[in-house]
Structures are given as C-alpha cells and as structure tokens.
C-alpha cells in the first residue's frame, strides 16, 4: 500500500540520505546484491540514486581497506554504517555469551569493525551479535568495553523483536543500557520492522531516543520494501524531524514484492511520502 500522506517539511529531506545494504563477504537476505561482485553493487546503488550504503562485512580483518575506500570514493558513495550480525550466524559470536572465549571473540570482531568505521566515519551496528539470548550484565560489560576502546566511533544498539532475541526488544530497553553505560558514543538504531512489532507508539519511541538516535533501518510492516505494507511512515518522518535526526535511512528489507522496486531511490521515496 503506497503512502498517501506527503511529508510537509521537504527542506529536511536532504539531511536524510537514503541507502542500500551491500554485502561484501557473505550474502544477506536483505540485499539484492551478491558479495562476489560488490564493486559492481556499488555501481548499481549509485545508478539507482542512492547516496550511502550500509556494508555487511563478516570479518573486517580479511578486507582490503584501500580497495574499499577507493571504490567508494570513485562512486561518490559514503558508508553510513557497518552491519555485524553475519558473524553471529556464521561463527556463533555473542557479546552476551556466558562463555568468556565466545564473548571475547565477539568484542574483538566489533573492535575490528570500529577501526574500519573510524576511518570512514561510519556507525557500527550492534544487532544479532549481541546474542539471541544471554546475560544482560555481560552484554553491558561488552558494550562498555567497545565504547571505551573507540570513543570517536558511534555504536548503535538495535532493539530486535522478541522472535529474534530475548535481549533488548524495545527502544526503552536499549536506552536503559545506553544510560547505564553513559558513553556519548553509544546510541540506538531504530528499525521500523522491529518497532512495528514491539512499540506501542512509533513517534514516542523515536522521540525518546532524542540525540541518541544514531541510525535508522527502513522496512515495511511485513518486512517488504517500504510502501508495500501498512507501516505509518509519515509519522516516522515527523518524529525524525522533531529530534533533528541527521543520519541516514537504510533499507533493510526483504526484496519483495520484486527486487526491481529497490533499483530506484526515487520510487522508494515516492511510495513512503518523501517526495
């Protein structure tokens, strides 16, 4: 269902660059691109009208940073964020694991992402790498260690719906952890799909984040491409304006009903009332 209400504050739209997820090492269901041909994926993202990308990287230590940086520069694309969850699925890493060695490996992997992010001024996402279940106190300790190690890098804790994790399902729970740690570089990622399941009021959840809102993921209520479900996107735009959000909007959605709908940033904006 296409959004019928148009966002009135058009002057703010340039502040919210729109981007796609681009896998570099392993595939992800939230991208139409193949990791084997990621430089070509950057070409397609740029041609489609996107100005930022979120890179899905499993192991930054195996990445050629100079090749990546040059590929981005040549296409005038910026990295908005690094998604880290592939290491959880592929290698079993968890920031909240009661097994110390597992937890330490997860922290090391996040810090590898942070080093990359620091060079590219990008956000490091803490999603599934926090663990599907685990100990909240251990997660808190892990996040604190990461935030202290790279004070200039922003880490975004993503509330996930309760079907995917028992830890941090609501924005209020993420903010509680953020406040307990007290690091200025630790904030929240707001994902519309998860919020549609867990939050009673989208606008209140966004407003509660305030300046701790570091990153935004877009998907419709059915996790399809925005505009093909019933998520109230105009309410989201109003809330983002109110908190003066100046980060990116990245599409983390299943490429349905057709991948072709993702190959035009203008079409995505039109469907959700951003133009």
- Gyration radius (Cα, Å) is 17 Å
Share of helical residues: 25-40%
Q: Tally the structural domains.
A: 1
Spell out the helices and strands N to C.
Answer: EHEHEHHEHEHEHHEHEH
The helix/strand class is alpha/beta
Q: Ranges with pLDDT <50 over ≥5 residues?
A: 1-14
**CATH architecture label name:** Alpha-Beta Barrel
- Shape, per Cα inertia axes: globular
Fold and architecture overview:
- The chain is an alpha/beta fold and 275 residues long.
- The chain has a single domain (10-271), classed as TIM Barrel (Alpha-Beta Barrel).
- It is 38% helix and 14% strand.
- The protein has ten helices and eight strands.
- Strands 1-2-3-4-5-6-7-8 form an eight-stranded parallel beta barrel, surrounded by five helices.
- Strand 5 (155-157), helix 6 (171-181) and strand 6 (186-191) form a beta-alpha-beta unit.
- The chain is globular.
Q: What is the secondary structure topology, with strand pairs?
A:
Elements: E1 18-23, H1 38-47, E2 52-56, H2 65-75, E3 78-83, H3 86-91, H4 100-120, E4 123-126, H5 136-149, E5 155-157, H6 171-181, E6 186-191, H7 192-198, H8 202-209, E7 213-218, H9 233-242, E8 249-251, H10 265-271
Parallel strand pairs: 1-2, 1-8, 2-3, 3-4, 4-5, 5-6, 6-7, 7-8
């Amino acid at each position: 269902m296409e959004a019928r209400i148009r966002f009135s504050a058009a002057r703010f739209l340039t502040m919210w660059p729109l981007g796609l997820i681009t896998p570099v090492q392993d595939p992800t269901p939230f991208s139409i691109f193949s990791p084997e041909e990621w430089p070509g994926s950057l070409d397609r993202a740029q041609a489609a009208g996107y100005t930022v990308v979120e890179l899905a990287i499993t192991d930054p230590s195996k990445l050629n940073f100079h090749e990546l940086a040059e590929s981005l520069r040549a296409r005038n694309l910026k990295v908005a964020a690094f998604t880290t969850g592939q290491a959880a699925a592929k290698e079993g890493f968890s920031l909240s694991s009661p097994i110390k060695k597992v937890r330490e490996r997860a922290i090391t992997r996040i810090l590898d992402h942070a080093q990359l992010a620091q060079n590219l001024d990008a956000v490091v996402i803490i999603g599934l790498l926090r663990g599907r279940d685990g100990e909240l106190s251990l997660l808190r300790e892990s996040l604190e260690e990461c935030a202290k190690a790279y004070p200039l890098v922003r880490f975004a804790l993503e509330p996930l719906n309760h079907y995917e994790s028992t830890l941090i399902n609501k924005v209020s729970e993420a903010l509680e952890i953020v406040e307990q740690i007290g690091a200025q570089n630790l904030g929240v990622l707001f994902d519309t799909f998860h919020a549609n399941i867990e939050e009673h009021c989208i606008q209140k959840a966004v407003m509660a984040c305030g300046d701790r809102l570091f990153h935004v993921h877009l998907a419709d209520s059915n996790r399809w491409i925005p505009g093909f479900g019933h998520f109230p996107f105009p309410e989201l735009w109003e809330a983002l304006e109110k908190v003066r959000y100046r980060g990116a909007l990245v599409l983390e959605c299943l490429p349905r009903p057709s991948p072709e709908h993702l190959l035009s940033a203008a079409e995505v904006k039109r469907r959700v009332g951003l133009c």
